[in-house]
Amino acid sequence: MRRDGGTRERTDIQRAALAFGAVFLLVTILGFIPGITTDYDRLTTFDDVGAEIFGIFGVNILENIVHLLYAIAGFAAAASFVASRNYFIWGGAVYLVVWLYGILIDLESSANFLGVNTAANWLHFLLGVVMLAVGFLLGRRDYERRAAAA
Fold first, then answer.
1. Number of domains forming the structure of the chain
2. Taking the mean position of all CA atoms in its chain, how far away is CA 22?
3. Which among 19, 48, 85, 123 could disulfide-bond with 139, CB atoms 3.0 to 4.6 Å apart, if both were Cys?
4. Are 132 and 93 within 8 A, CB to CB?
């Protein structure tokens, strides 16, 4: 609520940050539910492919914590246009770095401290591209709308 008693409508990118935060929170929760996360006993593996969400995407407790941090960051970023844009651009860039790391390492070695597998690597690539696209495209559109309204 603004000081004058009115409400400020969120921009599309702020709503997207809330949505991504909610999805990351859901993924975090699912990553701790035995059955949804298969090979649950491997959730604390830090030197090989860990457990798998839905039996597909490699994960371990460290990556679940990162998902939780992305959720918290998404919720916090939704408070402002600039923070939301930065969330998507920097978050997407980080996911692309994680993707590169995942495809360059031996997944069955001690370098695989995140417990990822091939499916998780390509999901990281997709998330990186989508987050960057949202950051740049929605960010630009919302910026233009804000400038026109001023």
1. 1
2. 10
3. 85
4. yes
The boundaries of the domain holding residue 62 are 12-149
d(CA 60, CA 117): 11
Q: How far apart are CA 138 and CA 12, in angstroms?
A: 7
What is the model's pLDDT at position 122? 97
On whether residue 3 sits in a domain, the answer given is no
Taking the model in full, what pTM does it have? 0.87
- Mean pLDDT (the chain) is 91
- The CA-CA-CA angle for residues 133, 121, 32, to 5°, reads 100
User: How far from each other are the two terminal CA atoms of the chain, in whole angstroms?
Assistant: 19
- Tell me, what's the pLDDT at 121? 96
Lowest mean pLDDT: which of 38-52, 55-69, 98-112, 132-146?
132-146
Task: Say if 7 falls within a structural domain.
Answer: no
CB 101 within 8 A of CB 66: no
Packing angle, helices 61-77 and 12-30, rounded to 10? 160
